[in-house]
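Renewal narrative, Specific Aim 1. Our central claim is that a sequence can be written position by position from structural information alone. The example that follows is taken directly from our test logs and has not been curated for this report. It begins with the structure tokens describing the chain, in the order in which they were read.
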């Protein structure tokens, strides 16, 4: 790629150098994004492959804000408005007999737009109370937002075995905006 751009600079002349440098930087950024996305999505697939009859993989995510009037507003119109927070938990379990994944979605709405450890914990609590059959272990995947990556939530997760008889195997923090999972598709459908 670098040789290609050098050859283009030679062929086109110095008046196109700035434009070619700009295009090359954009191409490098695009390639970096796809490399990160591929790497992070491998983590999702790896966790799903580790599923057995006793476990569950939870993918958790917040939809930033659902506005009562329109989900297609400009940023200028969007900021400062009050809406609803939506926290979703996508639960994968494995049916060993049929060798297939079962998927359930739990949506939790709040008219308080704060996305904090306590709302996240109550969302996970609701899932663990209602999930049938209850798994013996879970792995959780999320972005690395401060509502997930905080002391309060990690202390709560440390009590899952005591409170729900569920062992938290791991919490994997994915880079925000890079690993697109099925939960992002779910949020896109909710917004429309």
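The sequence written for that structure reads:
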């Amino acid at each position: 790629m670098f040789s290609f751009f050098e050859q283009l600079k030679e062929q086109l002349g110095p008046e196109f150098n700035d434009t070619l440098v700009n295009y090359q930087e954009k191409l490098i950024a695009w390639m970096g994004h796809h490399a990160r996305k591929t790497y992070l999505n491998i983590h999702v697939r790896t966790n799903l492959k580790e599923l057995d009859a006793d476990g569950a993989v939870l993918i958790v995510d917040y939809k930033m804000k659902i506005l009562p009037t329109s989900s297609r507003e400009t940023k200028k119109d969007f900021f400062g408005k009050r809406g609803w927070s939506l926290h979703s938990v996508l639960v994968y379990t494995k049916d060993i007999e049929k060798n297939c994944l079962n998927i359930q979605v739990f949506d939790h709405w709040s008219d308080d737009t704060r996305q904090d450890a306590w709302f996240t914990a109550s969302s996970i609590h609701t899932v663990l109370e209602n999930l049938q059959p209850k798994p013996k272990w879970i792995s959780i995947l999320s972005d690395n937002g401060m509502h997930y990556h905080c002391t309060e939530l990690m202390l709560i997760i440390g009590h899952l075995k005591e409170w729900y008889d569920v062992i938290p195997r791991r919490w994997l923090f994915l880079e925000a905006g890079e690993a697109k999972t099925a939960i992002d598709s779910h949020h896109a459908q909710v917004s429309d």
